[in-house]
Amino acid sequence: MKYLAFLLILSIPVVLFGRTGGCFSVTEFGAAGDGVTMNTVSIQSAIDECSKSGGTVYFPAGKYLTGSLYLRSDVTIYLENGATIFGSGKLTDYKAHFPRVKSLNDAFLKYSLFYAEGEKNISIEGHGVIDGQGQLFKVTTRKKPERYMNRPFIIRFVRCSNVRVEGVSLRNSAMWMQQYLACDGLTVRDIDVFNHVNQNNDMIDIDGCRNVVVEGCRGDTDDDGIVLKSTSKYPDENISITNCIVSSHCNAIKLGTESVAGFKNICISNIVIKPSIVKQVIFGYPEGTSGITLAEVDGGTLENVNISGIVMDGPRVPIFLRLGDMHRQYDTTESQPEVGNFNNVSISNLVALNVGSVGCSITGLPGHPIEGISLSNIRISFAGGIENGIASESPRELSAHYPESTMWGTLPAYGFFLWHARDITLNNIELNFMHKDSRPAVYADDVAGLTVLGLKADVSANADGFMSLGNVRNALIHGCQPLEETTNFIRFTGKVSGVDLIGNDLRLITNVYAPDTIEGVRTEANLVGR
């Protein structure tokens, strides 16, 4: 038994810290866990010594105050339960870093508590806490980029490979909590993030990375939650995000806004989106701005994105998909980017309750349609309550506008607004509203290739139509069912061609479509009873 116990003791560094090599306690290098002593030099010495052979820099229980630290290859930072690293509240304790990777953020993102560039096999793990004390960094101007320049991240890793952040709790960043720029092989697992002390308090920003796994994480943030960006020549690609719980005053799940090279091969699944426990708002709304935002606005390509198994409660807008054109350049020596591409996106098995009255939108630009979008097995309960004349039926293009789900105000549809789009499928969708709403469930304008299958939705008696179609080509409306009495199943607002209305339950409808003189419509096997 004594021999067995001895073997178990020997195995602790490998089992506990997950890497072979030595264990370097920061206290052995002079660090004091009293919450007062500035430990930057001591901790950095431990990291530097550990990197020579690889191993673990160990933080026993205590409070460790420090300025910026550089994390080197083959080093694991391990925080024991009861250990808290506090970032200094003085900017003079942080070193400015200017990555070799050019990006849209070069002008203002300089400081971080943990920084690494070009390193490999690095990790931050354990059961302790990293607290940036971001409330100590005041925003003194609203001008860009000045308002971002003097607030440090907690973590910023650039062009690193085999990166792992696991188990720790991250608190109170002065800026984004963590940014991973152009990294290859990133795993973020079972972390807990709380970020409500300053502007731009994102949960996580994955920027131009590849081969990424995010799983089992929890976050409650004032600004965006799980964010994928592309601010440089590198796209986000080969990314799996799963089994997370997210609360945000802004966008819970977001691809964009920065989208230079775009997003490819992204799988997001089994996410719970719920209201923040913090009601005081810096940005956004107490209930959140959007559940899912996908935005390609900087000339890149967004493609092959699969989102499934989402439950959300409370955001103003559950789904916002946008192809825009903000003309931004990460490298001013390059020519201005053309309009990007947005295609092959699937969103399925989603339930959204207690959402606002704005509506969802899937929009492109004239001559540049958003395309290949499939929404299936979705149930959404909207607030409703919008009367005729409040919502605009002709929103402005706003092609260069910052892509926000509320950018047009109240949309022409209480459910889905489709504009400048191609090959759109809505399959097995159920839409309800809490208060009577005079808008249609679906409003489509300039859409080629529209398939609506099994749509069941509320409709008001004074609505002009259950659905509204204008400038629509090649559409199949099949197996749909208005859930209340109203006058028109389809109201046409422009020229259409190749529109088939087949096998719909229209027993609560007076007219199949209006005006009844419009050409290009075929009806067949619809169930009528009035």
Overview of this protein structure:
The protein has 530 residues and is mainly β. It has a domain at 21-201: Pectate Lyase C-like (3 Solenoid), CATH 2.160.20.10. It contains three helices and 40 strands. The strands form two sheets. It has a 38-stranded parallel beta sheet that branches. Mean pLDDT is 94; it is low at 1-19.
What's the quick description here?
By secondary structure, the chain is mainly β. The protein has a domain at 21-201: Pectate Lyase C-like (3 Solenoid).
Please count the helical segments: 3
Portion in strands: over 45%
CATH topology value of the domain at 21-201: Pectate Lyase C-like
Q: Residue-averaged pLDDT, rounded?
A: 94
* Overall geometry: elongated
Features:
38-stranded parallel β-sheet; 50% strand; 40 strands; Pectate Lyase C-like; elongated
Helices and strands, with pairings:
Blueprint: H1 2-17, E1 22-25, E2 34-38, H2 40-53, E3 55-59, E4 62-66, E5 69-70, E6 75-79, E7 83-87, E8 112-117, E9 120-126, E10 129-131, H3 146-149, E11 153-158, E12 161-166, E13 169-171, E14 178-181, E15 184-189, E16 192-195, E17 204-207, E18 210-215, E19 218-221, E20 226-230, E21 236-248, E22 251-259, E23 262-273, E24 290-296, E25 301-313, E26 317-323, E27 341-355, E28 360-363, E29 370-384, E30 416-435, E31 442-453, E32 456-457, E33 467-478, E34 481-482, E35 486-492, E36 496-502, E37 505-506, E38 509-514, E39 521-524, E40 527-528
Parallel strand pairs: 1-3, 2-4, 3-6, 4-7, 5-8, 6-9, 7-10, 8-11, 9-12, 10-13, 11-14, 12-15, 13-16, 14-17, 15-18, 16-19, 17-20, 18-21, 19-21, 20-22, 21-23, 22-24, 23-25, 24-26, 25-27, 26-28, 27-29, 28-30, 29-30, 30-31, 30-32, 31-33, 32-34, 33-35, 33-36, 35-38, 36-39, 37-40
